[in-house]
Amino acid sequence: MLMLTENQGNAEMIKPVEQHILCVDDDLDFLKSLEFFLPEQINKETMSNLWYRFLFVDNPKEALGILQEFRTTSETVAMVISDQKMPQMKGTEFLKEVGKISPDSIRVLLTGYAGLESAITAINNHLLDKYLTKPIEDERDFTLSIQHLLQKFQMQKTIAEQNRIIHNLYGFANVLNSIEDFQKTLDYIISFTMDTLKCERISIMLLEGDILKIVAAKGIPEVVIRKTTISIGNRVAGEVILSRKAILAKSLNDIPYLDGTVRSEARSFISIPILYAGLASAEQPLGVINVTNKIDNIQFTETDLETLTYISNTASIAIHNHLNHLKLEKAYSESKAQASALAYQMTHDALTNLPNRTMFLDHLTVTLIDERYKNNTLSLLIVDLNSFNEINDTLGHHNGDILLQVIGERLKGMFEQPNMVARLGGDEFAILIPDSKTNDLPHIVLKIIETIEQPILLEGISLEVSASIGISLYPDHGEDPNLLIQRADVALLIAKKEKEVSKVYDQNLDPYNPRRLTILSELRHAIDNNQLILHFQPKVCLKTNSISGVETLVRWLHPQYGLIPPDQFIQLAEQTGLIKSITMWVLNDALLQCSMWHRSGTALKVAVNLSARNLQDPELPDYISGLLKKWCVHPDFLKLEITESTVMTNHKLSSEVLLRLSNLGIRHSIDDFGTGHSSLAYIKNLPVSEIKIDKSFIMNMITSKNDIHIVQAAIELGHHLGLNVVAEGVENKETFDLLAQLGCDEAQGYFISRPVAAPELIKWLNESEWGLKVSQKPAS
């Protein structure tokens, strides 16, 4: 038997979206009681654009048939409510079958207290989403429970729709770039947009002089397409192209220049300009995209506008390129071959046949848009041949050209789409690598250098050419294509200056970076002006699950730039010799804070980082010894962290300083273990008690088996050497638990706590599950 409720609301201009709720119980009286209050209460509290149609069925097998029909017609079933005790089929068995037919539907079981155990078992087995007790004692509480579950259903639908859109957007740019025919490009934009936004009508209008004409459309009569021409500034499309701003219309009465025909047929629409940015400072308007009426009578939202903005920005490049191509064809219509050759010349280097700077910039612009929406990284490498001018001068320009052709062909053979190799000019080549990982760069650089250095025979002479490489990364070093090229050039200059094979851009080494110049000039005054502050990041013992100490991190509270992290000024301090003053200040304030904690009853061990210059300072041990006495801190409460590369700099002097510090009772830790020069012969003979595994291995443990093996090997190595092992960069519970299973001793990272000032650390100690177990006491 089937009973149903109909939408009894007032007729609206925008009809609500209808979804079904199926109620199944062999007790007709109970079904009637539900029908009496539930539909009205649920729909009264529901959004105006949504209506739930209730169906009441007394036979679960009949209900399964109804669900099969809905599945065939693609109608949405938001929820199925079922009694547990029914003669034809148990409620849990029925809801299990519901999950097969309509897996997205919320499944609710009604049961008495005697049936709670089976209901809980069904939830644990994912056969249902919730159980509610029967009989219903409070209709309002019952209704609220149903409303909360329906809100969950709508949220899941929204997330699924967003994921569908993101999935569609991923490959949009690549498909556009692969279509050679202009009309097919426009048709693809039309079909892609309709499918993504689920709209009823769409048109693309392009500028011809001062007039907009429809060049592609769907859902619009052919006669309207032929007759529609709009001047700039007139009607919606003309206003959009004039203002270069999109219009999202939810209330059509607010648009005074909307013509009567469109007003009578439209419920909501978006009109957005197609603007080509290119390399010029000003955007070039190409046309307008208009979309009208979402299906299911839903209005367009700001999210739809953001999606259409991406589509428009990506389409603008393809449309611009096609329009340029059409202009060339028109200008040289007498010879298609001549036009094609000219287009090729405009985008390719005549000597090497590689893409030129213009084409490379266009490709970089398109790729950046795609990588931004994919949330990917991108690497830009500029390769410069060393001593090329000498070869040119010695063997002549003809042989220099041959050399460039050979190198260009070799580089081109190394990379396939979507990578790109281009010649920027002279002896400079550019390589674009989308979706690249920083960890892959050393291998890529090595392959490039090995490829270039293969001998080349010129004038009977076998030459081995070397090269330098500058690297910039998106998004770390910028989002603008010209800026990324500029910063790769800066990195190249630094690589040549420092006689290194390659260099990744570092703003602290960029002589053209205004911020760097300001920081450099003001750094020496930071200590005198009390602008340095300390933050502390807790470390947790994985065996006791309690805090084991803190790492001290210095910050510069700059009056103009705010809080500057150490990676932006410590290297400058090294270069200018200010690192000694900064380190002494950090040591003094860290031990002072340690002493204050001890006096207040909180015994915390502190760790301080040392640089290469610090370890070459023979006065450092005496200075630290004086501070320990001054602040009455036992040496066991101070740990000094050093990197592998720091120790390798003047190893003899560094070892002597470390040994003197160790004789004071101070412990040492090797920081960033696994990323430096990892000489086990050195490490085993150094007075160190701890290694800290670098975060680059820790952060990808959950997804990378290689990183798990590396971390496990480092832990076992450390323990074999009798060293404490700490993991840096722990950002989630899964990593935290896995490290504990692998036998790691301590963990540090944002999952536990970000670096915080001393007052915030005390608050963390009082509130954190790890901070409550502080029990360290000063050694006697």
How would you characterize this protein structure?
This protein is α/β, with parallel strands linked by helices. It has four domains: 160 residues, 3-Layer(aba) Sandwich (Rossmann fold); 161 residues, 2-Layer Sandwich (Beta-Lactamase), CATH 3.30.450.40; 158 residues, Alpha-Beta Plaits (2-Layer Sandwich), CATH 3.30.70.270; 256 residues, EAL domain (TIM Barrel), CATH 3.20.20.450. Helix content is 46%, strand content 22%. It has 29 helices and 28 strands. The strands form five sheets. The chain has an eight-stranded mixed β-barrel with strand order 20-21-23-24-25-26-27-28, surrounded by four helices. Helix 28 links the parallel strand 27 and strand 28. Helix 1 crosses helix 5, helix 6 packs parallel to helix 11 and helix 11 packs across helix 12. The longest helix is centred in the first third of the chain and has 32 residues. It is flat. The protein starts with a strand and ends in a 13-residue tail after the last helix.
Keywords:
780 residues; alpha/beta; Rossmann fold; Beta-Lactamase; Alpha-Beta Plaits; 8-stranded mixed beta barrel; 6-stranded mixed beta sheet; 46% helix; 22% strand
Topology:
Elements (H helix, E strand, L loop, with lengths): L1 E3 L12 E8 L3 H17 L5 E8 L2 H13 L4 E7 L7 H11 L4 E6 L4 H9 L5 E4 L5 H32 L1 H7 L3 H16 L1 E10 L2 E8 L3 H6 L1 E3 L3 H9 L3 E3 L10 H6 L3 E8 L7 E11 L7 H30 L4 H12 L9 H18 L3 E8 L2 H8 L1 H18 L5 E6 L2 E7 L6 H12 L3 E3 L2 E3 L3 E8 L6 H17 L4 E3 L9 H13 L5 E10 L4 E13 L3 E3 L5 H7 L2 H21 L6 E4 L2 H4 L4 H11 L7 E6 H5 L2 H13 L3 E7 L6 H6 L4 E4 L1 H4 L6 H16 L3 E4 L5 H10 L3 E2 L10 H10 L13
Parallel strand pairs: 2-3, 2-4, 4-5, 5-6, 18-19, 21-23, 23-24, 24-25, 25-26, 26-27, 27-28
Antiparallel strand pairs: 1-3, 7-8, 7-12, 8-9, 10-11, 11-12, 13-15, 13-18, 14-15, 16-17, 20-21, 20-28, 21-22
Helix pairs in contact: 1-5, 2-3, 6-11, 7-11, 11-12, 11-13, 14-15, 20-22, 22-24
